[in-house]
């Protein structure tokens, strides 16, 4: 059995219910909106965040209607943030597919993102859970705050790992953490169980983002973005930050500052990428990712063994071993 099948096995029926609810949430009489949504659906991927939410809900009991609405709400919010991010980053491609703004235009992309966000809030309300509604609202703030923090860091001439982790906690890990915490709330768990679930989600989300950042140092059509795409967008991620702080090389730091300012040439970016790889940046990022993976495993080890725990361990292995 492949890893994805193993992960999905305990929640096959629930995942089908989620997909039906998610699809129905996007139906509209607006022809333009339907065209955009149809394009977005083509890159729906493996639905890793809803799967995580459903698995964590199953840790504590049976999936309820509120669980499904929470999963739809958070996946819609995530999708909205991606559509908006592509406009902010002026990206023309996401995961090997043309972005909404590239096919249509920025106005359509922004308005579609707004529609998805509003629909997310509708489903949050349909959980009839004040903690989940509060969670979704706070997540929206965190995602925007993380994006703004990343933009403001461009003018900062330091190469701070702590700022990097602040950004990924708000931009990526917060979403995974919201999924796991909402899962606990949706099946009637209290604050203690919800905080345990939130921490598990945060560790998984940090692993997920570090893995994504490692991808940026290798060219692969499967991954769906060219080598150095983050640097082209002015972003310095964990591998580069480690090497820049370790070596204190003035030439590398000069290129890195040009990356932040958006003035680095493609040749300079290529040189910096090779420098980072030659000086242990990838190995450091992998070690850091594996440390967070172990933290998540330690949390799971405190639970009674079950098919859901087996699936969650497989989920975590998939996050760090995936090739795209």
UniProtKB/TrEMBL annotation:
It is an enzyme of class 2 (transferase). One of its GO terms (molecular function) is metal ion binding. It holds the Pfam family polyprenyl_synt. One of its GO terms (biological process) is isoprenoid biosynthetic process. Its EC number is 2.5.1.84. Gene3D superfamilies: Farnesyl Diphosphate Synthase. It comes from the Bacteria. Keywords: Magnesium, Metal-binding, Transferase. PROSITE patterns: POLYPRENYL_SYNTHASE_1 (PS00723), POLYPRENYL_SYNTHASE_2 (PS00444). Its cofactor is Mg(2+). Belongs to the FPP/GGPP synthase family. This is All-trans-nonaprenyl-diphosphate synthase (Geranyl-diphosphate specific). It comes from Bacteroides acidifaciens.
